[in-house]
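Backbone-to-sequence.
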């Protein structure tokens, strides 16, 4: 094995008890229980730096506890992304016993907007659950998916995180969904969101990870401070610069493996063996071509921050049908013309 993946992001089920507006959608088929257990054992052998278990809602998946047990007993760092509605006291005890870290998705500090975005959830229930979980020390983060519906609420989101006693917010840029082009932030809105984030973090004493490849470049350009959360974020490695397309694996519920959680590109399937697919990806001309930043086009290629950024590849493809095009919503691109 030449190198191990930065992480393995596993959408373990298509099932969910909510109907969120920004859901990226799931494959219709799911792997049988016998195969998800096999995948778990293969991950112990592959040894990614950590594993994210998500969905759908992972707590709806039969066999989930056996998967967690295999992964954590095998010495892997495991984090689960959940909507929080099924985190009963019994489930929390099980997760704590297994050593699974937990990220709860809360996309607004305002009940009416939160319940509009996450249809079927109750704001009070989820925030109270998050408060209880924070007392155990296993609330890794609150996850906040950024869109036109909620970006102006960033300051109050940090206030809510402080009230919950969550030490970290993962701010995740909206990636391709059904209403992508109408909900995606513009360059100017991204600038506003980044500046509000850095200011609010200092004001409320809550760390953050801003999951956009242009974040560090923008902070350098504007001369604003940024905190390095290291691997604490459990989303991607924040000390890595730019897009990590192809440096990790994402798996759909049906076993399809992709070089990015939001990429419209399948590199293999779990039925072929996770290790085999990873080895194939490492030698993929397609991936190597994309990750060679000097192959970028337009503003990205001319940018003085190319070495630490390079834009989001999945977003560039979704908006331009070209994997190598510039990132249209980059907040500093207009300064580089």
């Amino acid at each position: 094995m030449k190198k191990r993946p930065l992480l393995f992001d596993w959408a373990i089920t298509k099932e969910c008890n909510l109907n969120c507006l920004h859901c990226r959608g799931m494959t219709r088929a799911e792997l049988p229980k016998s195969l998800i257990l096999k995948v778990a054992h293969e991950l112990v052998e592959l040894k990614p730096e950590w594993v994210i278990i998500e969905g759908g809602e992972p707590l709806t998946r039969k066999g989930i506890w056996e998967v967690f047990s295999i992964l954590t007993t095998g010495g892997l760092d495991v984090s689960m992304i959940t909507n929080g509605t099924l985190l009963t006291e019994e489930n929390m005890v099980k997760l704590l016993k297994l050593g699974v870290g937990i990220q709860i998705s809360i996309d607004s500090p305002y009940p009416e907007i939160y319940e509009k975005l996450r249809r079927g959830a109750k704001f009070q229930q989820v925030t109270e659950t998050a408060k209880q979980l924070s007392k155990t020390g296993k609330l890794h983060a609150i996850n906040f998916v950024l869109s036109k519906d909620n970006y102006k609420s960033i300051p109050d989101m940090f206030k809510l995180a402080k009230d919950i006693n969550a030490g970290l917010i993962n701010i995740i840029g909206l990636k391709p969904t059904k209403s992508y082009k109408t909900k995606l932030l513009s360059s100017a809105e991204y600038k506003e969101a980044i500046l509000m984030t850095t200011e609010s973090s200092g004001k409320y004493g809550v760390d953050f990870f801003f999951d956009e490849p242009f974040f560090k470049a923008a902070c350098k350009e504007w001369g604003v401070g940024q905190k390095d959360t290291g691997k604490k974020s459990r989303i991607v490695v924040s000390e890595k610069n730019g897009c990590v397309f192809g440096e990790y694996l994402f798996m759909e519920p049906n076993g399809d493996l992709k070089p990015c959680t939001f990429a419209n590109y399948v590199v293999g399937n779990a039925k072929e063996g996770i290790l085999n697919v990873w080895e194939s990806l490492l030698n993929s001309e397609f991936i190597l071509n994309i990750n060679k930043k000097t192959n970028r086009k337009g503003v990205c290629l001319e940018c003085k921050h190319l070495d630490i950024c390079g834009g989001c590849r999945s977003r560039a493809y979704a908006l331009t049908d070209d994997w190598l095009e510039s990132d249209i919503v980059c907040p500093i691109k207009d300064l580089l013309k």
